[in-house]
Write a structure and sequence with these properties.
Layout lengths: L11 H12 L5 H13 L10 H8 L3 H14 L1 H5 L15 H12 L11 H10 L8 H10 L2
Helix pairs in contact: 1-2, 2-4, 7-8
Amino acid sequence: MPAKLYRIKLTKEERTGLIEITDATAGSKERRRRANILLLSDESEEGPAMTDAEIATALRCRPKTIARVRQRCFESGPGPAVERAAGSAGLPRRKLDGEAEAKLVEIACSKAPGGHARWSLRLLAGRLVELEIVDSVSHSTVGRTLKKTT
């Protein structure tokens, strides 16, 4: 197994914060797992400094997960390492943010273009791209967004 690239040495305060997360009954199971990964990876005097393979066996996760959590901790600190990474899997990026949604509703409430009795989802999607509000958007995304609004 290759040598650890990112070694973790936690302070007493950081260890206390991570232990509070692992002891909490509320919150994400993955958040508690990431806190446990950091506690078991800790190479300070108080930490067990387990290997990735030992941690993977103990927590039933992949060594790659452990390496990613340690890297995030090394780069950003234990707080951000425990939280979900921005843009991580499971949370798709939104094509239409609040401002784009407002423009979409404004366009949908306006008069339909010439030759059309009303706006279709495809026409609305095309207009959003034409006005450079978004680079691209599907008609189904436009429909879901309009369905949320009253």
